[in-house]
Design brief:
Helices cover 44% and strands 9% of the residues. It is mainly alpha-helical. Strands 1-2 form a two-stranded parallel ribbon.
């Protein structure tokens, strides 16, 4: 994992960690330079409709001035 994160950083790419289950996972990934992730630690899987409902309050923060979603 450490090598993949370092390689991505060298290539100016973002890494997304999958399967995060504990706060310790989050902390270790942050120490390695990975700041984006998903997994049961954050939420169990949800339907597309439920995800849209969860993200709706954040829409103003997720859309830039041109209307593109970050």
């Amino acid at each position: 994992v450490r090598l993949v994160i370092a390689l991505a950083r060298t290539l100016n790419l973002e890494t997304v960690a999958e399967g995060i289950e504990t706060a310790a996972h989050v902390e270790e990934l942050r120490r390695m330079g990975c700041f984006i992730g998903q997994g049961y630690f954050f939420s169990p899987p949800v339907s597309a409709d439920d995800a849209a409902l969860m993200l709706a309050p954040l829409q103003a923060f997720l859309v830039n001035e041109s209307g593109s979603v970050f």
